[in-house]
Amino acid sequence: MERYVERNSARWLFRRPMTLSSRQPYISFTFDDFPRTALLDGGEILNRYGLSGTYYTALGLMGKGSPSGALFVLDDLRRAIGHGHELGCHTHSHCHSWNTATDVFEDAIRRNRAAIAELMTGVEFKSFSYPISEPRPLTKRVTAKYFESCRAGGQKPNVSSADRNQLAAYFLEKVRGAIQPVKDVIDLNRRQAGWLIFATHDIAPDPSPYGCTPEFFEEVVQYAVASGARILPVSSALRSIGESNSDAA
After folding, report:
1. Contact present, 206 and 37 (Cβ < 8 Å)
2. DSSP assignment of 155-167, as one string?
3. pTM for the structure as a whole
């Protein structure tokens, strides 16, 4: 119990509250680590429905292997931007959000920001995903200085109010191919006009434990579209929600 409280302490600290007052539900599709299949298969599925997602990228791992398969190469970054997707930050070396000292974590953020500026003119990271675990409280405070939003986990939608420094996400791989729990959370998001941020890693016929199959992913996308939600990358959704809040005021 003490370890649970310790690991989740950041949820109650250094918050940046935001209100979700729109009657319109929102959904975002995000991919951590940016395995190549997340773009070549997952991104293709999204584009087929006229949608785009957010790819959380650790540029120090470009071209390397990972537990979720081969990671992105430079052409994938260009392709993602060209197809309307968002690139988000995942630190430069995929730092563990709890085990890494805060100063080391911040340096990895700065390195990743400098690397994307060098590789792709005019592209900057506006959103962030905490790698591997929930963040240390002080790490959360430091990370928030650099981004419009920071995403974690939680297996739930963001409803009524949310913390821009630690947005909740729903990891698709955790349902192990069972579609009904995913449909249920999409229905909940629709009823409560929330912001549901889906997350996963690879999209492959034989996925890693951290990914899902193209067939399953497309079924999720289809049901999300049918829910009437506005489906946008994270930064675009955040901007649209802010505009909706202003209109409702």
Report:
1. no
2. SS-B-SEEETTSE
3. 0.95
Question: Among residues 234, 238, 236, which one has the least CA distance to residue 32?
Answer: 234
19, 244 Cβ separation under 8 angstroms: no
Question: CA 208: distance to chain centroid?
Answer: 18
What pairs with residue 28 in β-bridges? 197
pLDDT digits (tens, 9 = 90+) for 88-100: 999 999 999 999 9
Do 150 and 128 touch, CB atoms closer than 8 A? yes
Task: Tokens 């951590």: give the residue.
Answer: 32
User: pLDDT, tens digit, for every residue of 201-247?
Assistant: 999 999 999 999 999 999 999 999 999 999 999 999 999 999 876 55
Contact 213/207 with Cβ under 8 angstroms?
A: yes
Domains of the chain: 2-248 (3.20.20.370)
Which pLDDT belongs to residue 1? 45
For 43-69, give the DSSP string. IHHHHHTT---EEEE-GGGTT---TTS
Tokens of 225: 């579209």
| Cβ proximity of 150 and 125 under 8 Å | no
* Separation between Cα atoms, residue 244 and residue 174, nearest integer Å: 32
Q: Which residues of the chain have pLDDT under 50?
A: 1-2, 249
